[in-house]
Design goal:
CATH architecture of the largest domain: 2-Layer Sandwich
CATH topology of the largest domain: D-amino Acid Aminotransferase, Chain A, domain 1
Structural class: alpha+beta
Radius of gyration: 28 Å
Number of helices: 24
CATH superfamily of the largest domain: DNA ligase/mRNA capping enzyme
Helix content: 25-40%
Number of domains: 6
Largest sheet: 6 strands, antiparallel
Length: 683
C-alpha cells in the first residue's frame, strides 16, 4: 500500500468508525457486531501506526485516540473529577500475554498478580457520593464529562442513596464509584415477549435497551423497565487511602458500603492463572443473570496501577478479553412474514437447522424490511447466525463467497399476507403494518392474548379453538367470545358436547375475572400485567379507565400519579381509548355480562408480606409461579425478576438455577413453598 492509498483508507476508516460510534454510543442502535467494529478499529490503528505521515494528513480527528461519546441532548453535562477511560480489548490469547509482558517490562518485575472480572455488557456510569450520600450519577460521556442521569438511576432498586457505615471500610468524604448499568436477561425477555405478542419489533440485545432506557428524558418511563447496576472500581477519592490498596480489596469495600458488586471474580498470580480464570468464566457465564461478553483483567495492586499509568484513552494496567460471539453458518431457505396483534409485519428467516450455543436453530429474526436491504440478504444465501445478547437468534451477515446465481432478492409484500389489505408505514416508523383491524390473523392473536392464562384465562379456548371460531366468523373481537352459541360450537366435530359445555362454563366464569386481567387482555400498547394491576387499583372499573384523561396519569399533583406509569404509557392508554372501537369494545363487554372483580381493599392485618420483595425460581410442589405471585401480591408483597441484596426472600423449588446460586452468594434468605405458605398465614 502506498502512502497515498493509506491516507485515503485511513480517512475512510475514520469516517466509518465515527459513524458506528454515533450509532453505538448515542443512538444505542449499532448496525454491526462488536467483532466487526473491533476489526475496523484494529485496521485503523495498524494503518495509523504504519503510516504516521499519511495519518497526520488524512484530516479529521482519529477515533482511536478518544473515548466514544455517549452524551445526548436533554441532559446536564457534568465533568468527572477523574477521567473515565475505555479499555483496550483483544480476542487473542497471544495479545493478552503480550499485555502481561509489556506490564512486566514497564514495572520491572514479572511477579504480577491480577484480578479477573466478568465484562458485563452495559452502559458505563460513575456515581459520586459526598459524605456517604449519593450526589449524582453520570455516564462516561467522552471520558472527561458525561450526562447527569441521576433521576433515571434512582429508579434502580439496587442503588443505595446512602452508603452503609462499616468499621473495616470508613466512608470517604468524596468518592467516584465506577460501574455498569445493565438489563437482566429475564427482564429483556419479558419486554421482548410483550413486544412480540403485540406484533412489535423486538429489541436486539440487552445492552442497547439498557443504554436507550437510561437516556430517556422521563424517569417514569425508565421505571417501567427494570434496570440493574454493578460496581467494580473507584475514580477520585478523598482521602485517597479510603479506596484501599488492592482491586479485590476495593470490591470488599464496595460490598461493605452496601453497593452491588460483581457476583464472582478471580485473583490470579501471573498470566497463566489469569488465562485459566478466563476459561472458567467462559464455562459458567451462561448461568449469569446478565449478558457477559468477555473478561476484564486488571492489576491487583492499586499502587502498581498508578505506576503503570494510562494512555490518552485507556489504562495500561487493564485489558478486556472478549469472547468471540458464537456464530453458525447455514442456508436461508425462505423468508416468511408474520402479522402481529397490532398489524406489524415482521420478516422471519427460515433456515436449514443448525446447532448454535447449545440449541438447534431453524428460524431467526430479520428485524424489518430495511435490515434485509442493508445486509443484502437473499433467499438461498448462506448466512451467519448469532444469538444476539445470548438470547435471540439473528441473521447478522451473508457469506458472499457462497452466493449462487439463483439466489433471489426478497420482495417485501405490499399487501398483508393474511387479508390482502395494502400495508402502510407511519411517519417515523420502520415497521410496515396491516391497517385492517378485522384482519383474521390480528383477530386471532387478539383473542388468543385475551383468553390466555396471563389475561382472563379461559380454559378450552386454545389456539385451535380460536382459529376455528374466527374462521367461522363467530368471533370478530374479544366481546364476541361472550356471544358464542352452543349449537354453533357443536358443529365443530364429533363428540364435542362435553368439551363445548366445559368451554361455555369457562367463558361464563371468566366474566368475573379480576379487573387487571381484563385490562391486560385489551392489548393496550406498553401495558403489561404489572401496569394493569396499578391501573385496576386506581380506576376500579373498565368504564372509568376508558374515560381517563392525560392528567389522571401525569398530573402536577405527585401524590395522584401512578407509580411506574410514565409519559409513553400514559399516551398509549389515552390513544387506545380515543379509538371509537376501543370504547365500543368496553361497552360490548359490559353488555355481554362481563363484571370484573375490582381489587379489594385489604383489611387491617391482611397484608402480612407488605414491604417484602420475593423472587421465584424453579418448580414449586403444589403452586404454579403465577399462583404464587398472585398470592404474594395479594398479601402485600412485591415480585422481582432478579435477585439483588435488597431481595427479602428467594422462593426456590426443584430445578432452581442461577437465581438460587446468586441468592446464596449474596446471603439472601432462601425459602421453600411450605415457608411461603406459613408467611402468607402471618406466621
Amino acid at each position: 500500500m502506498t502512502s497515498h492509498e493509506a491516507q485515503r483508507r485511513i480517512a475512510a476508516l475514520r469516517s466509518e468508525v465515527a459513524a458506528h460510534d454515533e450509532r453505538y454510543y448515542c443512538s444505542a442502535r449499532p448496525e454491526i457486531s462488536d467483532q466487526e467494529y473491533d476489526r475496523l478499529k484494529r485496521e485503523l490503528v495498524d494503518l495509523e501506526s504504519s503510516f504516521p505521515e499519511a495519518a497526520a494528513s488524512a484530516g479529521a480527528q482519529t477515533p482511536t485516540a478518544r473515548v466514544g461519546d455517549d452524551r445526548a441532548d436533554g441532559f446536564r453535562t457534568v465533568r468527572h473529577r477523574q477521567p473515565m477511560q475505555s479499555l483496550d480489548n483483544t480476542y487473542s490469547e497471544a495479545e493478552l500475554r503480550e499485555f502481561h509482558a509489556r506490564l512486566s517490562r514497564l514495572l520491572g518485575r514479572d511477579d504480577l498478580s491480577y484480578v479477573v472480572e466478568p465484562k458485563i455488557d452495559g452502559l458505563a456510569v460513575s456515581l459520586t457520593y459526598e459524605k456517604g450520600r449519593l450526589a449524582r450519577a453520570v455516564t462516561r460521556g467522552n471520558g472527561v464529562e458525561g450526562d447527569d442521569v441521576t433521576a433515571n438511576a434512582l429508579t434502580i432498586r439496587a442503588l443505595p442513596r446512602q452508603l452503609k457505615r462499616a468499621a473495616q471500610a470508613p466512608v470517604p468524604d468524596l468518592i467516584e464509584i465506577r460501574g455498569e448499568i445493565y438489563m437482566a436477561l429475564e427482564e429483556f425477555r419479558r419486554i421482548n415477549a410483550s413486544r412480540e405478542d403485540a406484533g412489535e419489533e423486538r429489541y436486539a440485545n440487552p445492552r442497547n435497551l439498557a443504554a436507550g432506557t437510561i437516556k430517556l428524558l422521563d424517569p417514569r418511563e425508565v421505571a417501567e423497565r427494570s434496570l440493574e447496576l454493578v460496581l467494580y472500581g473507584i475514580g477520585a477519592c478523598e482521602p485517597a487511602q479510603a479506596g484501599g490498596d488492592t482491586q479485590s480489596g476495593c470490591q470488599a469495600r464496595l460490598r461493605a458500603w452496601g453497593l452491588p458488586t460483581v457476583e464472582k471474580f478471580w485473583t490470579a498470580r501471573g498470566i497463566d492463572e489469569a488465562w485459566a480464570a478466563i476459561g472458567e468464566l467462559d464455562r459458567i457465564r451462561h448461568g449469569f443473570a446478565y449478558a457477559t461478553d468477555g473478561a476484564v483483567v486488571k492489576l491487583e495492586s492499586l499502587a502498581l496501577q498508578r505506576e503503570a499509568g494510562s494512555t490518552s484513552k485507556s489504562p495500561r494496567w487493564a485489558m478486556a478479553y472478549k469472547f468471540a460471539a458464537e456464530r453458525a453458518e447455514t442456508r436461508l431457505l425462505s423468508i416468511t412474514v408474520q402479522v402481529g396483534r397490532t398489524g406489524v409485519l415482521t420478516p422471519v428467516a427460515e433456515l436449514e437447522p443448525v446447532l448454535l450455543a447449545g440449541t438447534t436453530v431453524s428460524r431467526a429474526t430479520l428485524h424489518n424490511r430495511d435490515e434485509i436491504a442493508r445486509k443484502d440478504i437473499r433467499v438461498g444465501d448462506y448466512v451467519f447466525v448469532e444469538k444476539a445478547g445470548e438470547v435471540i437468534p439473528a441473521v447478522v451477515a451473508v457469506n458472499p463467497a457462497r452466493r449462487a446465481p439463483e439466489c433471489s432478492a426478497f420482495v417485501f409484500p405490499a399487501r398483508c399476507p393474511s387479508c390482502g389489505s395494502a400495508v402502510v408505514q407511519a411517519a417515523g416508523e420502520v415497521a410496515l403494518r396491516c391497517p385492517n383491524y378485522d384482519c383474521p390473523v390480528q383477530v386471532r392473536r387478539r383473542v388468543r392474548h385475551f383468553a390466555s392464562k396471563a389475561c382472563v384465562d379461559i380454559d378450552g379456548l386454545g389456539e385451535a379453538m380460536v382459529d376455528a371460531v374466527v374462521e367461522n366468523g363467530w368471533v370478530r373481537d374479544v366481546a364476541d367470545i361472550y356471544r358464542l352459541r352452543r349449537d354453533n360450537l357443536l358443529t365443530l366435530g364429533k363428540s364435542v358436547e362435553k368439551s363445548t359445555d366445559n368451554l361455555l362454563a369457562a367463558i361464563e366464569a371468566s366474566k368475573r375475572a379480576e379487573l387487571w386481567r381484563f385490562i391486560h387482555g385489551l392489548g393496550i400498547s406498553h401495558v403489561g400485567a404489572a401496569a394493569a394491576k396499578d391501573l385496576a387499583s386506581r380506576f376500579g372499573s373498565l368504564e372509568a379507565l376508558s374515560q381517563s384523561r392525560h392528567e389522571d396519569f401525569i398530573g402536577e399533583d405527585k401524590e395522584s400519579r401512578i407509580a411506574g406509569i410514565g409519559e409513553t404509557m400514559a399516551e398509549a392508554i389515552i390513544e387506545h381509548f380515543n379509538q371509537p372501537r376501543s370504547r365500543t369494545l368496553v361497552r360490548d363487554l359490559i353488555r355481554a355480562g362481563v363484571s370484573p372483580r375490582a381489587p379489594a381493599a385489604a383489611a387491617p392485618g391482611a397484608r402480612p408480606l407488605a414491604g417484602k420483595s420475593f423472587v421465584l425460581t424453579g418448580t414449586l410442589p403444589t403452586m404454579t409461579r403465577d399462583e404464587a405471585s398472585a398470592r404474594i401480591e395479594a398479601a402485600g408483597g412485591k415480585i422481582a425478576s432478579s435477585v439483588s441484596k435488597k431481595t427479602s426472600f428467594v422462593v426456590a423449588g426443584s430445578d432452581s438455577g442461577s437465581k438460587l446460586e446468586k441468592a446464596t452468594a449474596l446471603g439472601v434468605s432462601v425459602i421453600g413453598e411450605a415457608e411461603l405458605l406459613g408467611m402468607l398465614k402471618g406466621e
